[in-house]
Amino acid sequence: MATELTIALAKGRILDETLPLLARAGIEPVDDLNSSRKLVFATSQANIKLVLIRSADVPTYVQYGAADMGVAGKDVLAEHGGEGLYERVDLKIAPCRMMTAGFADRPMPRTRLKVATKYPRITRQFFLEQGRQVELIKLYGSMELAPVVGLADIIVDLVDTGNTLKANGLTPLEHIMDISSRLIVNRASLKMKNQPVKELVGKIEKAVK
Ligand code: AMP
Fold it and tell me: pTM of the prediction?
């Protein structure tokens, strides 16, 4: 009997671009993932199932082996820390940049810079490496609002076209890292299910090319 494999995916722009890749690797969900309320989906391959979770939870499911593999943005992976998993393939989907952003014409404060972000780990590390002391303000969304209402001096967020920043009068300032989605694999699965996992990773890698 073929080894069971579970792949963790998240709804949204990453899913829309991941499904065609999986289809090229021979894996197609039996139901429509976008319209269904189900969280577990059978696929055209009897031994492979998909689970649909929040994007920030994908690395956690893979870390603990609840999913053998997953697709997550580099931003989510870097914020998670990567314990218990391997990053195997750059899927080159949902590319963007993580940047600091603020008002171009506003002088930086002499006291501690206030930075609003949903990426506290990455932000702390970025400023630590530069020896800059900052006060972190953790938010869960709409970061662009924080400098506008004076909650923070700058933000750390993902920038694609730059339109969201521009619409709020903000400018991208410093580049932190390039982002794209990655295929991640649970460390134990790679050992215990080596052959089927390697085979599937290879097929997805080929689909990307
Ligand atoms: P944009 O206006 O095109 O620069 O897009 C910026 C907005 O979209 C911000 O709210 C970002 O958090 C979000 N965003 C941009 N690219 C991505 C991505 N690849 N994954 C998730 N969110 C993104």
Answer: 0.94
Q: Do 50 and 111 fall within a single domain?
A: no
pLDDT digits (tens, 9 = 90+) for 26-64: 999 999 998 999 999 999 999 999 999 999 999 999 999
What CATH number is given to the structural domain containing 30?
A: 3.40.190.10
User: What pLDDT digit, counting tens, does each position of 154-172 carry?
Assistant: 999 999 999 999 999 999 9
* Overall number of domains in the chain: 2
Secondary structure of 57-92 as H, E, C letters: HHHHHHHCCCCCEEEEEHHHHHHHCCCCEEEEEECC
Residue 144 CB–ligand 1 contact under 6 Å: no
The verdict on 22 and 68 lying in the same domain is yes
**Separation of 160 CA from ligand 1 center, angstroms?**
5
Asked if residue 56 has its Cβ within 6 Å of ligand 1, the reply is no
**Closest ligand 1 atom to the C-alpha of 179?**
19
Residues 6+ apart with CB under 8 A from 104: 171, 173
Q: Which domain holds residue 138?
A: 96-177
